[in-house]
TrEMBL record:
A GO cellular component annotation in the UniProt record: cytosol
Protein name: adenine phosphoribosyltransferase
Main location: cytoplasm
Molecular function as annotated in GO: adenine phosphoribosyltransferase activity
Similarity comment: Belongs to the purine/pyrimidine phosphoribosyltransferase family.
Signal peptide: none
Superkingdom of the organism of origin: Eukaryota
Pathway, per record: Purine metabolism; AMP biosynthesis via salvage pathway; AMP from adenine: step 1/1
Cited PANTHER family: ADENINE PHOSPHORIBOSYLTRANSFERASE, ADENINE PHOSPHORIBOSYLTRANSFERASE 5
Enzyme Commission number(s): 2.4.2.7
Gene behind this protein: APT5
Organism: Quercus suber
């Protein structure tokens, strides 16, 4: 749905990004499909494409602050910071209930 709504349907970058994300089934508990972006961060082209897609989508929306958990998702927030010149706020979600 995201691709169709944002003019990205058929964009080869989405398939490469999807393939770069490791799926860990039943982690941390049965029924959850954990999306591990560590492998995305190691694929410099797929990670750059991810940042480029976010930047293209949000560049003209007047965003000044992004909040991210102190996890790997903060890496994406920090990358956006340098492109969009925004403030990034991190918080610890390690104790959140699943």
């Amino acid at each position: 749905m995201f691709a169709a709504e944002n003019g990205l349907k058929g964009d080869p970058r989405l398939q490469a990004i999807s393939q770069a994300i490791r799926v860990v089934p039943h982690f941390p508990k049965p029924g959850i499909m954990f999306q591990d972006i560590t492998t995305l961060l190691l694929d410099h082209k797929a990670f750059k494409d991810t940042v480029d897609i976010f930047v293209d989508r949000y560049r003209d929306m007047g965003i000044s602050v992004v909040a991210g958990s102190l996890s790997l998702s903060l890496s994406l927030s920090l990358s956006l910071k340098y492109v969009l010149y925004i403030f990034v706020y991190g918080f610890d979600s390690a104790w959140a209930d699943l």
